[in-house]
Specification:
By secondary structure, the chain is α/β, with parallel strands linked by helices. The protein is built from 8 helices and 10 strands. It has helices at about 10-25, 40-55, 80-85, 110-125, 160-165, 185-190, 205-210, 235-240; strands at about 1-5, 30-35, 60-65, 65-70, 100, 130, 155, 180, 195-200, 230-235. The strands form 2 sheets. Strands 1-10-9-6-2-3-5 form a 7-stranded parallel beta sheet. Helix 2 (about 40-55) links the parallel strand 2 and strand 3 (about 60-65). Helix 1 (about 10-25) packs across helix 2. The radius of gyration is 17 Å and the shape is globular. It binds 2-phosphoglycolic acid (PGA). 2-phosphoglycolic acid binds near residues 38 and 139.
Length: about 240
């Protein structure tokens, strides 16, 4: 694993966007795995800036998001569908038909949707570059502690700390979805290259353990030690 420590969040965002831009320029039909949450917000802003000011071309890019809540309608303001539109897709020339996000809408056959998603990734030729954050509990995507390293896209229950952390986005803790669809640890490890992003003091302990502790299913992010091409970009605070 290569580890790059940046002085601050802004530089982390710029470095992440530059790595993605270089990958797109090298392979026009790049397939990206994309995260949501706080950490990648600056990266998306920087990618939008590169599209506007440097002509970064997303027209051949395919994207698969890592996860989605199960339950809220797709246009719920806190759904990851809404996040991706509002933060990224609406401002770049990615083709809508080249974007995919698990569908967690009410009434969906969730298990069939998981199978569809895993097949869609496979049919696209796999993910070239997957960007992922880390939870303070060591989760990656919504693979909570205890997730099998052989897991693929599936329905999961969110950990209590993940629900508590998401409460700030919903009107109350009771409104936070309890379940989600997430790609699995094996799906993540199948990506050709992984970019791990972590910012801030609250992530320092999880990052330190993920990078240095023995690999264990009790710490999902430690699975990244098993992958041959991981780049971790941390800001000073997340390095601890
Ligand atoms: P955050 O979430 O970017 O909002 O901190 C990361 C994660 O929980 O995976």
């Amino acid at each position: 694993m290569r580890v790059l420590v940046t002085p601050d969040y802004r530089t982390l965002s710029e470095e992440a966007a530059e790595l993605i831009a270089r990958s797109i320029r090298t392979k026009a039909g790049l397939t990206l795995g994309l995260p949501t949450g706080n950490t990648p917000l600056g990266m998306y802003e920087e990618l939008v800036r590169k599209h506007r000011n440097e002509g970064l071309d997303f027209s051949g890019v395919r994207t698969f998001n890592l996860d989605e809540y199960l339950g809220p309608v797709r246009d719920h303001p806190q759904s990851y569908h809404s996040y991706m539109q509002a933060r990224f897709f609406d401002y770049v020339n990615v083709r809508r038909e080249n974007t995919d996000i698990p569908d967690g809408s009410p009434g969906i056959d969730a298990n069939a949707e998981c199978d569809r998603y895993e097949s869609a990734i496979r049919d696209a030729g796999g993910i070239d570059l997957l960007i992922v954050g880390i939870g303070a509990n060591g989760h990656i995507a919504f693979n909570e502690p205890g997730s099998s390293f052989d897991s693929r896209t599936r329905v999961v229950s969110l950990a209590p700390e993940t629900i508590a952390n998401a409460t700030k986005y919903f009107s109350s803790e009771g409104k936070v979805p309890r379940t989600a669809i997430t790609i699995g640890i094996r799906t993540i490890l199948d990506a050709r290259r992984i970019l791990l992003l972590a910012s801030g003091r609250t992530k320092a302990k999880a990052v330190d353990r993920a990078l240095r502790d023995p690999v264990s299913e009790s710490l999902p992010a430690s699975a990244l030690q098993l992958h041959p091409d991981v780049i971790a970009i941390l800001d000073e605070a997340a390095r601890g």
